[in-house]
Amino acid sequence: MIGLADDFAPLVLILGHGSASRNNPHLSAYDCGACSGRHGGPNARVFAAMANRPEVRARLAAGGLHIPAATWFVAAEHNTCDDGIEWYDLDSVPAALQAALETLVGQLADACRAHAAERCRRLASAPASPSPWQGRQHVVARGHDSSQARPELGHATNA
Question: What is the DSSP letter of 84?
């Protein structure tokens, strides 16, 4: 349904999302509608575990979907409040893919920091022109600051 049917990468990231803050009256609105209003990380984790099972791949292959044996599915959850990532079951990633995994983890961390800095452009409480590191520190602090009634602000720019 998502178009992933061939040309699989060695690592395939299944990324759920959710929000964690102490002070948001609209907290559940930031969780995944496809996951019954809950965080999407557990679903991503189950999907990755299922997709890595040889029995599941054999059944999929019988139906015409061939996932290479060298492909591994990795699960994580993006915290949309503080732009953090929680990774799941990294200890089960094959040794041959560890270098690729380290690259992926680093790239996603960079993307989260850059996104946090971008969000800060629209936040009155943020420092002017923050670096990615400063932006990430600011959005983490917003999720725990009782004076911030909407710590999630800054994701969409609908005008």
Answer: E
Give the closest residue to 43 by CA, choosing from 33, 30, 57: 33
Give 11's DSSP letter. E
How do residues 20-55 score in pLDDT, each as one tens digit?
777 666 666 655 555 566 788 999 999 999 999 999
Tokens standing for residue 12: 């395939």
Residues 6+ apart with CB under 8 A from 22: 143, 144, 146
Reduce the secondary structure of 62-74 to three states and give it as a string: HCCCCCCCCCEEE
Residue corresponding to tokens 């995994």: 101
Q: What is the DSSP letter of 154?
A: S
Whole-model pTM: value is: 0.85
Count Cα atoms within 13 angstroms, Cβ side, for 10.
Answer: 11
Question: Bridge-partner residues for 85, per DSSP?
Answer: 78
Residue 22's nearest CA partner among 153, 148, 154, 119 is 148
- Runs of H (alpha helix) within 22-97: 41-51, 54-62
